[in-house]
TrEMBL record:
Cross-referenced Pfam families: Sulfotransfer_3
InterPro entries: P-loop_NTPase, Stf3_sulfotransferase
Name of the protein described by the UniProt record: Sulfotransferase
Domain of life: Bacteria
């Protein structure tokens, strides 16, 4: 990590890597010059981007690599906003056909949403995002649908770089350029979401976003899904998307304004596991970008953030018609994933049979992948303990039976009286 920061800092000083200031106007001007375009589409995204940039400057304590990465990320978003509007302006057919109502997995970070999402993504009757599409959702001008696409290689290089900087990230969230992935990158196109808080220490941005209406970000997400489908070059009817990202926990009202007929699958896990795993994920990302990452601050912040996610989810869920939602437990997925998925498919009014072979292949491959490497974490590393965390979520845990089950006592047969006497 230190070597990478030193190298990037040196390249900046030598002007081999141009160092742009973290200033919204300067970044926008640079993006316009680089692309030759000037229409970013809905300007709503500029406000969250402005708040985000200000919070990074004031709070994130970025190292040289972190500053380089932040500038690169913002330039990428701005270029892709310009390219997106270019595609919409030059290919009206992209937005002509509406999306089918999606199936959306909803749960906090580290609650098993990835496993549930990938099981559904194994079903060819659904559309799903692939990693390279969520990292690089917008092709450059000149791209032809179904033609040569440089984005998978770009995403693979980025993934390889992150894994080299911190190999633990590959254990926490294993993936590859063509693997099913959440649509988080589509919200990043609006500078929106907890993804930024999991990367940088930016509490001001987090508090601001918690009070804003996310509907414009989700509207842009829906249009990007249309663009992703178009870029695949498939002359077939659109299938329902299967979506998931923990950000939905905070934004269910906005999500349902944009996708009012969506089917929602809520997944629930012991909050102590959710908080511990979330803190570990954030720590392993934040240390790439800052040399001053504080594990105890991360523990306090993500305990509060998880609490807010769950409170907002429960409030919004109570207003959703039971025919539109179903609840599943992480614990049940561990014990009998196939039984849970059969129940999910009955809720979706679909036959699970055609999807089962692909689901079973995914499970076998996932078990093989995790055979020697497991994501390990400890609440005490983040200044927390199980009693404190579970006390914070007592009502939620009771509502969904999330309390840890006691270990079953060893069963010792009671000897008959005659046998006892014989041994005496």
């Amino acid at each position: 990590m230190g070597v990478a920061n030193f190298a990037v800092g040196g390249l900046n000083k030598l002007a081999l890597v141009p160092e742009l200031p973290l200033d919204l106007d300067d970044l926008c001007d640079a993006a316009r010059r680089q692309t030759g375009l000037d229409d970013f589409g809905d300007p709503w995204f500029l406000r969250p981007l402005e708040v985000l940039i200000e919070a990074i400057r004031e709070e994130a304590s970025l190292n040289a690599l972190g500053r380089f990465a932040a500038t690169g990320q913002f330039m990428k978003v701005l270029r892709e906003r310009l390219w997106t509007q270019h595609w919409f302006d030059t290919h009206e057919e992209i937005l002509a056909e509406p999306l089918a109502p999606p199936v959306i997995v909803v749960g906090p970070m580290r609650s098993g949403t990835t496993r549930l999402h990938r099981l559904l993504a194994a079903d060819e009757r659904f559309e799903h995002m692939r990693f390279f599409e969520t990292v690089c959702p917008v092709p450059e001008p000149g791209f032809r649908p179904g033609g040569r696409d440089r984005r998978p290689r770009q995403a693979g290089r980025l993934l390889s770089t992150v894994h080299k900087l911190n190999p633990r990230t590959a254990v926490i969230h294993p993936t590859g350029p063509f693997e099913p992935e959440e649509e988080l990158g589509l919200l990043v196109q609006s500078a929106w979401g907890m993804k930024h808080e999991a990367q940088w220490r930016i509490p001001t941005y987090g508090r601001w976003a918690e009070e804003e209406d996310a509907t414009p970000a989700y509207s842009h997400l829906s249009r990007l899904l249309l663009l992703v489908h178009w870029a695949r070059g498939r002359n077939v009817p659109r299938k329902p998307w299967v979506l998931k990202t923990p950000q939905h926990m905070l934004d269910l009202p906005a999500l349902l304004r944009v996708f009012p007929e969506a089917k929602l699958i809520f997944i629930h896990r012991d909050p102590a596991k959710v908080v511990g795993s979330s803190c570990s994920l954030v720590w392993n990302q934040m240390t790439i970008h800052s040399d001053e990452a504080d594990p105890h601050w991360i523990g306090e912040h993500w305990l509060d953030k998880t609490s807010l996610q769950i409170d907002r989810m429960q409030a919004a869920r109570s207003r959703i018609h039971p025919n539109q939602r179903i609840d599943v437990l992480y614990r049940d997925m561990d014990a009998d994933w196939e039984g849970v998925m059969r129940r999910v498919y009955r809720f979706l009014d679909m036959d699970i049979g055609p999807a089962l072979p692909a689901m079973q292949r995914y499970v076998r491959n996932a078990k093989s992948q995790h055979r020697w490497q497991r994501h390990r974490y400890d609440l005490t590393s983040f200044g927390l303990d199980q009693k404190t965390v579970r006390g914070r979520f007592e009502r939620y845990a009771s509502a969904f039976d999330l309390h840890p089950k006691p270990a079953r006592p060893e069963i010792v047969p009671v000897m008959q009286q005659g046998a006892r006497q014989a041994l005496a």
